[in-house]
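Morning!

As promised:
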Amino acid sequence: MRKQPLALFDIFNYAALSVLSLSILYPFVYLINMSLSTSAGLYSRDFALFLWPEGFTVEAYRKFLSMNYVYTGYAVTLFRTVAGTALSLIVMSAAAYALSKKYLPHVKIYTTIFIVTIFFSGGLIPTYLLMRNLGLLDNIWILVLGPMVNAFYLLIIRNFFMGIPEELEESARLDGAGDFRIFTQVIIPLSLPVIATIGLWQAVNHWNAWFDSLIYINSMDKHVISVHIRRLVIEQNAAMNDQLTSSLASVQKKNMPSPESIRAAAIMVTIIPILCVYPFIQKFFVKGVMVGAVKG
Amino acid sequence: MGSVTWKAYVKYKFLFLLLLPAFVYMIIFNYAPMYGVLIAFKDYSFTKGVLASPWVGFEHFHKLFNASTNFTRILRNTVVISGLKLIFTFGGAVVLALFINEIRSTAFKRITQNISYLPHFLSWVIIGSIMMEMLSPSSGVVNKIIEYFGGQPIYFLADKYWFLSIIVVSDIWQSVGWGSIIYLAAISGIDPQLYDSAKMDGAGRARQMLSITIPCIANVIAIMLILQVGSILNAGFDQIFNLYNFKVFEVADILDTYAYRVGLENGNYSLSTAVSLFKNGIGLALVLIANKIVNRMGHTGLW
């Protein structure tokens, strides 16, 4: 008898979660459909597109990839992701190692100096003025340097280092290893899980970052791809639109993609790399939430 | 004394060498801007620099709190948007965790979790772009569905009555799955014996959820809630900035977007810094209070 309402709840539960999953996935399906549709198909249906594309063409992708600054945009994004993550990991793990040593003179003061930055920052304009005074405006290294040291990430690495038994270092020292070898060949290999996790966080942050590029960079060819996507889709920038409507003019002659398809293709091209690595990195992130929850 | 410290520094020179780059970085990139906050009390001009610009005391704050800047509107929007997200996204994450926990099929559970975490990895430029395309009055699928049922297209992002709903829905879409992780982890830490003895006492699943699961994760919920309240002045710059436009400023303009426009679009550096300082100051106080409350409750908060 008692089973009855529970079975009802189960049905409701499965249904509700399925609806959630589908509503999370549907925007991607919609964008793929839009990006693959032919303009003839779209106009014939007045853009009423629900579950499948109208016609099939990859012209929208071809057109997007031939637009100005798309290649430089991806190059800058890739550069900042690789260089930014690598530099950030080197600098942060080095400092984290020093801060993990309780016997280091004034270690508490140094640690506090880092912690303060988690809770208070100068804000938008003072940071902007600093970058201007440093002569970093319109320099792509600003994208690498800006987010380089994150005190919160640094403390997570430090906490992991603190958990490594001191005896391991001492025995390595007895075997004749110097400070540098102990750090690079004992500590770092043992800490790969946390370094990989923080590295992935930083890599995703870099891949997604756009605001620093928007405010610090002026030259079009130094912007990250997200800024160009923003100009194309969100700002509907005039120069960008001209490139789109020039394709619209040729719609009648050839089977050219409509601006809607090109914008959908642009969004998809930026999402695809994330979709590809997502199955592999997702686990690290879920674990990372727990790492972050353990404070020190 | 000094020479002892000096000797210690020499002894650990390798460690200090490792610390140096990050330390210098912090001083330049994090502490120099904190010094730059002084321009909130000065009439900053670029040619004079921070130091030589004349002091004006609290003039910028007076200007800010003056009715002409719509400061109450901006503060109200910030708190309203944060509050809505607290109710829907934060509350939704707890409910989602409870629902996922009740699923018996591990495959379905895993698939649901993996899908729901996905949008967390997309930036607001991308999500904003997706919203623009789907909500477009001329070609977006949402309006096509409305038209299909005989309705008139709605310009969601330029309509102040719809804008907040869009903000809440897109925030849920992005964060609800990710937010549920911490509660699922807390649930998985509950002693299974509690459920066993409850079953022996004849408790059904609804009873178990109400009497075991929810009380056992109440601590985690309370901590997350307090910390969330502590950051109530962060209404989500990235999201608003990529979705709003001047037609919806009345409901959408928040402290951060206002500071951006005043500072980088109008070039009023001092006023913008005053806005940031107001926000950061109150924000810091709220976080400290929230942390104190969490500690009072017998938990380790942020420190």
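The first helix of chain A runs from residue 3 to 36.

Hope this helps with the figure draft.
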